[in-house]
Amino acid sequence: MGFLSTVPATERLEAHPDHEHYISSTVYGSALAAEEIPRFEMAEEEMPARVAARFVHDELLMDGNPALNLASFVTTYMEEEAEKLMVENLSKNFIDLEEYPALGEIESRCVNMIARLFNAPLDNKDAEAVGVSTIGSSEAIILSCLAAKKRWQNLRKAAGKSTEHPNIVMNAAVQVCWEKAARYLEVEEKYWYCSQGKYLADPKEMIDLVDENTILVCGILGSTYTGGYENIAEISKLLEVKNKQLGTDVWIHVDAASGGFVAPFTNPNLLWDFRVPRVCSINASGHKYGLSYAGVGWAVWRNTNFLPKEILFTVNYLGAPQVSFTLNFSKSAVQVIGQYYQFLRLGKGGYRAIMTNLQKTADYLAEEVVRIQDGTMFELMCEMRGKGLPLVAWRIKADKHYDEFAIARHLRSRGWIVPAYTMAPHAEQTKLLRVVVREDFSRHRCEVFVRDLKDAIDFLDKTPSEIIQHLANASKNNAKQSHKSAKVKHHHEHDSLQAKHGKTHGVC
Amino acid sequence: MALSKHIDAEALIEAARKHPHHKILERHHREIHEGVYASRFDADAEVPKYKMPQVGVSSKAAYQLIHDEMNLDGSPLLNFASFVHTWMPEEATKLMMENINKNFADQDEYPATQVIHTRCISMLGDLWHAPKGQAIGTATTGSSEAIMLGGMALKKRWQNKRKAEGKSAEKPNIVFGANAQVALEKFARYWEVEARLVPVTEKSNYCMDPHDAIKFVDENTIGVMVILGSTYTGHFEPVSVMAELLDEYQKETGVDVPIHVDAASGGFVAPFAYPNYKWSFDIHRVASINTSGHKYGLVYAGLGWIVFRNADMLPKELIFELHYLGSTEYTYTLNFSRPAAPILGQYFNFLNLGFEGYRRIVIADLKNARILSNALELSGYYKVLSNIHIPAPKTASGVIGVAHKAVGAVPDLEDPESYVKGLPVVSFRFTDEFKEQYPYIQQSWIQTLLRNKGWIVPNYNLPPSLEDVEILRIVVRESVSGDLIERVVADLMEITEALMKNPDVPMLMATFTGQPSLRDEAHHGRLKKEDVGSGNTHTYARQC
Question: Compositional bias of type Basic and acidic residues: which residue ranges (chain B) (predicted)?
Fold first, then answer.
């Protein structure tokens, strides 16, 4: 054809710079990319989905790499198929049982599998175990404390005694959520304190703290500091004696946030679960060694007697009233689906294979760490060979001009996130480094890490202490700067373990 | 009546399974199959239900088993019962999946996620007219957690105040309407605060009337929770009236009672549909507000927000200080580790939609809800209890109406301000004439019959004191398009008329719905109401 086209003069084009429209097909060519993105106030106008997604995506590049995060117990890897299931179910609301009956069924199956894994008694049909999924171990622990408090109140009221000063007995090395549960539910915290070289609760000293106002004794299966397991069986034995003396009915809750999916596979003969007579409830994080992504925990009770009626809510779904016990209501369903996927996919054999590998990797790492500088440099603070969680914790025993925090800082510059901590209250002069071995921390990656650790020590050995001090100050200032933005800042509290002892609360 | 007995489906299957060998549960050798369906590899494959299997299956098989199981769930799109959002653009889904392995609690490792969280709080504070630079807040798993955090702050502030005055802090109470979501009552029971439920009436629009509520307030009241968007009928409880009454109360007695607004559903509706409506921090008595990001915030389930007017509203002893490598963070939450992805989804929406985008969606929701309401009323069978289709009373818009007339303009029929304010929710029941003419037709059958067509429209009783009134409720969300509204109206009319015309159908329905739930398996192994006794809940746990 022969249509004539005009060629507009430059002047005419410049008079109508329709810039926004004709290059908005690319993200970075759009006018939006040259502007600041809305940060503190919603913009008036819309933005194309592609552009918005890219901007948020780019913003997140500043986040650390989950795979190199050796600080956290929380799962960072799941199979493609599991992720696919999760995408398919993102739009489902977990509590909407009426609409999504299959979700309810799956939760129920998971509770069954976990209760059996924890050896819940199956012999009495009038006292069956009960359990529930939660967002994480924090919710599970707050629920358990709530139930225990209510049960204690009811018992005390029935006996005509005061219900004014409930307390919980626990090791001061507990995760922060215990402190939270106690403070929010107005229960006094009674701590057994660690001392140099003694980081797991001493059953006798701990039980000595129990009195008639004790609602619960907490046992830790997997200390977040050293990975060690507390002696639940012994605590139970002493507690029974104590109960007889005092005429009380105190029970144990086992915080198996990290150990619940490890001990049954690497240490099946360890007595810590419902086989121990005084254990009334257990929590475990599905998103730690349960191998699902962040957002699922579990709480299981020995039987319904431990859940007083007044804290349960009956939720009426068309023709089928259901009993609920939760602090959250609507929530995502995908993490529970992920949990069931892992149970089917792996079976006990699969979990055992993974946990055994993790144990081997942890043992390898521990041996390598000890071997550095012919065994003169570090001292191990953790258990090995399945006696604790698959983590490696160690401290400097040699006389050096730098500390554990300097090593952590140096490793961070290579991309590794390895936290340095001070020990639990009353042992806080001890500092330590901790590596959590997760599913995706393979032997190969471990070898790379050992190499970088050795390099870090070589570097620090050769660096004068003034420079190390300078680096420490610089990083402190950096942290202050980057968190300045719009965060709440105020100093307060005098009561917490943090305020009294400078207790650091680890990521978990 | 047909004679029948209850058949245990599991026993039936067990009996039918004549060759109990080669079950997944009992295989001796660990073999990972690549095949997926039973027909390909294992005719007797049984999905493990109660016990973890000794040996696993391939990732493909595990995927397919669960994927198929999930097909028994309803379709989120046709779920008209719930406020919870069910659709996000592809880009948002992708973004969330990219970040599904990030733990929000891990503040040190994921600083960019924290920055985005802070921005969301700023935007919400700004949207709700909080004093500049003073609001503080946090993301939660949903409004339940947010309400408990809000309630706990009210309780602690009250305790501190009473202790400072040397008065007893033993008998706290909290006031809210009987139409409240179960989370409010749960807070009261778990945190040992007496719940004072304000009865609701037809005259009070099925929600709390501040003039009734004020009668429940005394020196031990830690706060009044006002609901912006009753889940029953979508009515807004008047925050400003409540605040005025509490101002007067303070003048008379010197007792200062704060307000917490439960804007679970309305927090993302009111600011966009009714930008000049006063309900948020522009009322000085409002101490804190919660909302659900996963309702009209348009994010998938798992996100709520609570914002406090300023740091004074949040007693310091409730805040936990966490120290990570070189930095200090403050947290106020009941959960610890949890997914970061929903927060990123919220920020995506804020960027993608902006104020105009949210407004456009809410206006469309309200318009669809009006069309549905009008259609139901025109049918003559149904009476609509929600009000958003009724033109706004003259007092408010009358002046504007006159102004319009003066310049010869007509009121904008698309503008939500031309109608009574509320959530895009339609609550309806049979008209009195209908009930008189067909006394044997039960309203709950409509729910059952609609379900057979795939629609989920719940039928339930109004809150205590009106509990003999049953309502059907349809929540209009972003994904409930005009087309779906047309279809559901057509089906509703067809069903209603079928019941009216055919005298046998009601008979059949009565037989069918008289039976126990047919979906026994879903409830197998769950704690039943009988196990815990009954009558311990005053509000109802509505889906929301």
Answer: 522-532
If we measure between CA atoms, which residue out of B304, B269, B272 comes closest to residue B288?
A: B304
**Contact residues, chain A, for B127 at CB < 8 Å:** 42
User: Domain A134-341: which topology?
Assistant: Aspartate Aminotransferase; domain 2 (3.40.640)
Place of tokens 């902006």: B354
Fold of the CATH domain A347-500: Aspartate Aminotransferase, domain 1 (3.90.1150)
B194 in a structural domain? no
- Residue B491's closest CA among B458, B451, B435, B523? B451
Residues of B in Cβ contact (< 8 Å) with A322: 523, 526-529
Residues of A in contact with B65 (CB under 8 A): 344
So where are chain A's domains? Answer: 4-60, 134-341, 347-500
Query: Among A301-305, A494-498, B90-94, B472-476, which is the least confidently predicted range?
Result: A494-498
> Average pLDDT for residues A172-181, to the nearest whole number?
89
- Across A247-261, average pLDDT: 94
Sign of the C-alpha dihedral, residues B146, A138, A325, A187? negative
Asked if B340's CB is within 8 angstroms of A294's CB, the reply is yes
Render pLDDT for A127-146 as a digit per residue (tens, 0 to 9). 889 999 999 999 999 999 99
- Domain boundary (B73, B108, B133) is at B73
Q: Say yes or no for a CB contact (<8 Å) between B118 and A486.
A: yes
* Of A357, A190, A355, A184, nearest in space to A260 by CA: A355
Q: Report the pLDDT value the prediction gives residue A486, as an integer from 0 to 100.
A: 46
Q: Please answer whether residues B542 and A95 qualify as being in contact, where contact means their C-beta atoms are separated by less than 8 angstroms.
A: no
Identify whether the C-beta of residue A97 lies closer than 8 Å to the C-beta of residue A323. no
Q: What is the pLDDT of residue B16?
A: 75
What is A199-249 written as a DSSP string? -S--HHHHHHT--TTEEEEEEEBS-TTT-BBP-HHHHHHHHHHHHHHHT--
CB B151 within 8 A of CB B171: no
What pLDDT sits at residue B439?
87
Yes or no, beta carbons of B143 and A329 under 8 Å apart: yes
CB B100 within 8 A of CB B311: no
- CA B11, B16, B20, B25 dihedral sign is negative
DSSP conformation letters of B149-189:
HHHHHHHHHHHHHHHHTT---S--EEEEETT--HHHHHHHH
Closest residue in A to B58 (Cα–Cα): A345
Q: By residue range, what is the domain housing residue B371?
A: 360-517
Asked if B300 lies within 8 A of A496 by C-beta distance, the reply is: no
Distance of alpha carbon A105 from alpha carbon B47, whole angstroms = 12
B541 — pLDDT class (breaks 50, 70, 90): very low
CB neighbours (10 Å) of residue A422? 19
Task: Say whether B356 and A348 touch across the interface (CB within 8 A).
Answer: no
Q: How far apart are the first and last CA of chain B?
A: 38
Pairing verdict, β B173-177 and B194-198: parallel
The CA distance from A367 to A372, in Å, is 9
Q: Cα–Cα distance between A336 and B544 in angstroms, integer?
A: 20
The partner residue sitting opposite A105, judged by closest CB among B52, B105, B521, is B521
User: What is the rounded distance in angstroms from the CA atom of residue A47 to the CA atom of residue A39?
Assistant: 14
Flag the least confident range among A374-378, B192-196, B241-245: A374-378
Report residue B286's pLDDT band, with 50, 70 and 90 as the boundaries.
very high
ipTM of the prediction greater than 0.90, yes or no: no
Quick check: is B138 in a domain?
Answer: no
SS3 state of residue B130: coil
Put simply, the answer to whether B118 touches A83 (Cβ < 8 Å) is no
Sheet of B459-461: strand order equals B382-384, B425-430, B470-475, B459-461
The alpha helices in B380-420, defined as continuous H runs, are 394-406
Nearest-neighbour CA in chain A from B301: distance (Å): 5
